Task: inverse folding
């Protein structure tokens, strides 16, 4: 893996070979009839980690979560929780709670009774239940709504009741299935930070399933990008964004430009690519690629510089602005290279008034640094 | 214009109820207060429009509650009511015991299978009710299919007497009214979000406890509707006890039929019908209250 420089980390047990994982998926395969939902998947999650399973619908992420909760059993392989195999342990005996995508609030019970449900089931003393419920409702700022029924609440409030209910039993592991999926954008962003605070405050391990890459990037310690039942890449948000290991991951997280090319030679930590797009590319990469092998350079739009004059450095190509989208903080361009390839570039608008922005009908140059992107052979 | 249209559309159902429900009801009620008289129609007083208002009031004074008093004094009627209610009550319980698992199984079947199962439940309605009850005679009679099967299996040595007993009446009612129990329960169970049951299990319930606290609790409106749909017509059932029941099977529907057609006593049979109606209004009101609460909850 390519080094990402000096990224300061306060929490990274996955880098410690001595650290014991809290959850271990060991060669899990899950079949539904002929359909293989999960294929030979191994994955470790550590205590107090905020872990995201990210992927398109049908990639098996929810199945993975449901196997942890005990609603599905793996066809083969074993799941360990704190070193203990989970096979055959029914859902009600697992020290795991789940927040459901539909929230699954009991419609016939008040907010209070919903939150208290798990505690009553546990046989907790009445006074303790009352105290815990009050505490939980305070945590999600719903004290005033204790007597309401779920149908009398807004979507955001229901989401918070579901959250309070799922953490009321103080599980060590909380599973969240698309927890913010039903909320509008603004509420979703607010709730992301609330979830992170809650996780810190209670010291829980969170495993969250989402198809929203922004959500996963914002909240997670690590992300597992999944594709058709297998994990494509596991890493911190920065790792999966800056150093994707495959075209799939590069494309799934954020937007990306892929330059397909043939390796022309490697020397001194530099790989030279002969591209079909009419210009040669030099990439800083100390791996040894066979000359003539097909690889792709994945480079993010913000790593591409636009200029009116031919830049000094290599890795440059000329073209014209095809689309310009002014977003306020950034301007996104689609540049049509002379060879016909479309390239996405985005520039940060650092000055308030952009006196002389690059417009249409101009001959412009794109360029990027040798360490701006990453080489993918998958 | 729009307002007038709205008034008319509201008026039509009220008019319908008035003419075809309230008016006949009042006529029956009036007959129940009249005095038996051999003639056509067989009761007095007759209202004579030519006598004008004073004649109307004179006639009205003749109405009295004698028929009801007679119902109270004769044990036959009391027993018939009690027996009808008992048979209807236990048939409803049995229908529920069979209908709930059926509905549950249907609701949990795969989505492709559900319409077929639903079709199978509705299918018997395509045959006349009367013919289906007659078919049970063929099954239950001493030399019928059921006895032949049991004899062949060696379960029994001599044919059982099922036909013309209360047992046959129970079988008939449970068979005939099963769809009315299954359909409303299926409707509520089918809407039930399965995630609720998983949530209950996730929060510490065993499968059985989750069923009890969530599935069963949330299907109460369906169960209530099913029970009423079975119980109310079963109380007044006439065809099933008449065809399958024996001479000792006492049900109010049969008594009513006898009074009306055999004895030609319109006044007593009207009074019988009025009392039956009063008895049945109670569970309907209870159900409507529960229903109102349930819709309140779903809003």
Result:
């Amino acid at each position: 893996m390519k080094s990402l420089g000096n990224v300061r980390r306060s929490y990274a047990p996955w880098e410690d070979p001595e650290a014991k994982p809290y959850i271990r998926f060991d060669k899990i395969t899950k079949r539904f009839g002929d359909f293989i939902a999960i294929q030979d998947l191994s994955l470790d999650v550590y205590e107090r980690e905020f872990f995201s399973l990210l992927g398109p619908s049908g990639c098996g992420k929810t199945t993975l979560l449901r196997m942890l909760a005990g609603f599905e059993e793996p066809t083969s392989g074993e799941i360990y929780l704190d070193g203990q195999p989970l096979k055959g342990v029914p859902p009600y005996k697992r020290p795991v709670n789940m927040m459901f995508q539909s929230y699954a609030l009991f419609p016939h019970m008040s907010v209070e009774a919903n939150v208290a449900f798990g505690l009553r089931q546990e046989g907790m003393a009445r006074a303790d239940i009352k105290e815990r419920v009050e505490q939980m409702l305070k945590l999600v700022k719903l004290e005033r709504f204790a007597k309401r029924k779920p149908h009398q609440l807004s979507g955001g409030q229901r989401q918070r009741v579901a959250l309070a209910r799922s953490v009321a039993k103080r599980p060590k592991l909380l599973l969240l299935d698309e927890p913010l999926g039903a909320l509008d954008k603004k509420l979703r962003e607010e709730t992301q930070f609330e979830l992170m605070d809650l996780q810190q405050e209670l010291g829980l391990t969170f495993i969250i399933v989402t198809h929203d890459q922004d959500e996963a990037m914002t909240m997670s310690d690590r992300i597992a990008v999944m594709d058709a039942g297998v994990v494509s890449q596991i890493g911190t948000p920065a790792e999966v964004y800056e150093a994707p290991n495959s075209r799939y991951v590069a494309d799934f997280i954020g937007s990306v430009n892929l330059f397909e090319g043939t390796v022309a030679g490697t020397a001194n930590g530099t790989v030279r690519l002969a591209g079909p797009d009419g210009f040669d590319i030099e990439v800083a990469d100390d791996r040894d690629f066979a000359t003539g092998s097909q690889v792709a350079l994945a480079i993010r739009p913000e790593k591409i510089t636009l200029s009116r004059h031919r830049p000094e450095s290599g890795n440059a190509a000329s073209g014209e602005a095809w689309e310009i989208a002014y977003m306020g903080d950034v301007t996104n361009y689609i540049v049509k290279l002379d060879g016909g390839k479309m390239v996405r570039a985005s520039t940060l608008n650092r000055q308030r008034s952009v006196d002389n922005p690059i417009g249409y009908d101009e001959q412009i140059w794109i360029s990027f640094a040798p360490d701006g992107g990453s080489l993918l052979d998958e | 214009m729009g307002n007038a249209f709205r008034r008319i559309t509201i008026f039509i159902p009220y008019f319908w109820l008035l003419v075809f429900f309230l008016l006949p009801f009042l006529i029956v009620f009036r007959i129940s207060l009249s005095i038996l008289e051999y003639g056509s129609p067989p009761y007095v007083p007759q209202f004579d429009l030519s006598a004008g208002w004073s004649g109307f009031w004179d006639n009205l004074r003749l109405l009295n509650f004698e028929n009801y008093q007679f119902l109270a004094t004769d044990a036959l009627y009391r027993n018939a009511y009690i027996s009808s209610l008992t048979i209807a009550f236990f048939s409803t319980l049995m229908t529920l015991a069979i209908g709930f698992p059926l509905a549950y199984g249907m609701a949990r079947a795969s989505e492709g299978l559900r319409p077929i199962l639903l079709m199978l439940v509705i299918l018997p309605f395509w045959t006349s009710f009367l013919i289906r009850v007659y078919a049970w005679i063929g099954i239950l009679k001493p030399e019928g299919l059921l006895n032949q099967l049991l004899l062949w299996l060696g379960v029994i040595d001599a044919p059982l007497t099922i036909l013309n007993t209360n047992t046959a009446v129970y079988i008939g009612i449970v068979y005939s009214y099963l769809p009315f129990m299954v359909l409303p329960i299926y409707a509520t169970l089918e809407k039930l979000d399965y995630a609720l049951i998983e949530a209950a299990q996730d929060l510490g319930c065993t499968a059985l406890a989750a069923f009890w606290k969530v599935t069963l609790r949330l299907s109460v409106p369906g169960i209530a509707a099913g029970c009423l749909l079975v119980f109310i017509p079963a109380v007044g059932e006439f065809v099933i006890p008449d065809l399958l029941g024996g001479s000792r099977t006492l049900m109010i529907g049969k008594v009513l039929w006898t009074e009306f057609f055999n004895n030609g006593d319109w006044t007593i049979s009207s009074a019988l019908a009025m009392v039956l109606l009063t008895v049945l209004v109670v569970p309907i009101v209870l159900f409507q209250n529960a229903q109102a609460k349930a819709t309140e909850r779903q809003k």
